[in-house]
Amino acid sequence: MRTMSARPHDATRRRIYLMRHGSVTYFDADGKPREPDSAPLNDAGRREAAAAGQLFARDGVRFDRVIVSGLVRTVQTAELVLNEMGVACRLEAWPELVEIRGGPLSKLRDDELRDAFLGSLEGCPDPETRFLGGESVGELLDRVVPAIKRLRASTDWETVLLVLHGGVNRAIISHALTGEHRLLGGLQQSPANVSALDVGSHPRDWVVRYVNLFASDLLQRHARRTTMEELLDQYLVGRRG
């Protein structure tokens, strides 16, 4: 395999490629939750990650650094992308960029389920809004935004790939768009999608080139539902049973 070497870009800005991991099976056929931290990519997720890697390879993209959250699904996605590109690169695990943490689903009442699954990723949620009864939106931002500022302060990269999670990616893109400590929940993150963010030397110098480019289905013509809506339906199979 070839060694990574990013091509130089405009000296005024650097490029962040931001990916979500590929598809994962979080609930079995009976709606029983699986352990999310150890859940691997499913067959669709592996195909989605490979398709993103082929897109990078086609355009000759190279990365100086590749950062994952450390959870299995981000590591596998990054490895499949790099394999399709025919390159080798050490993966850096940044645990502060793991997905927003949910609480025990069994403790949620039936009338709380919709808001628990969907409320933290709709509109511009209050920082106190909790995801699945667990971590709040504010707590997510409190760990993600400083990590991105630390990445920007590092001078050893021109092009970086971040392979992270839907909620975390929303936090990063929201910070880029608003310059504030807030979350824009409507920024859908399809599996193994790619977003491109350019950063300059000034803290507010962000340019969002594109968001949620899904290599497996570029036009997303038939997509109408969100990931969390689908997961809620899967969970309800077991809950109602």
State the CATH topology: Rossmann fold
What CATH architecture would you give? Answer: 3-Layer(aba) Sandwich
What does the average pLDDT come to? 94
| Number of self-contained structural domains | 1
What is the CATH class name?
Alpha Beta
**Gross morphology:** globular
User: Strand fraction band?
Assistant: 15-25%
Topology:
Blueprint: E1 2-3, E2 14-20, H1 43-58, E3 65-68, H2 72-85, E4 87-88, E5 91-93, H3 113-118, H4 137-153, E6 159-164, H5 166-178, E7 194-199, E8 206-213, H6 227-240
Parallel strand pairs: 1-4, 2-6, 3-5, 3-6
Antiparallel strand pairs: 2-7, 7-8
Helix pairs in contact: 1-2, 4-5
Describe it for me?
The protein has 241 residues and is α/β, with parallel strands linked by helices. 33% of the residues lie in helices and 16% in strands. A 6-stranded mixed beta sheet has the order 5-3-6-2-7-8. Strands 1-4 form a two-stranded parallel sheet. Helix 1 crosses helix 2 and helix 4 crosses helix 5. The longest helix is centred in the middle third of the chain and has 17 residues. The protein is globular, with a radius of gyration of 18 Å.
Give a brief outline of the structure:
The protein has a single domain (2-240), classed as Phosphoglycerate mutase-like (Rossmann fold), CATH 3.40.50.1240. The chain has 6 helices and 8 strands; from the N terminus they run E-E-H-E-H-E-E-H-H-E-H-E-E-H. It has helices spanning 43-58, 72-85, 113-118, 137-153, 166-178, 227-240; strands at residues 2-3, 14-20, 65-68, 87-88, 91-93, 159-164, 194-199, 206-213.
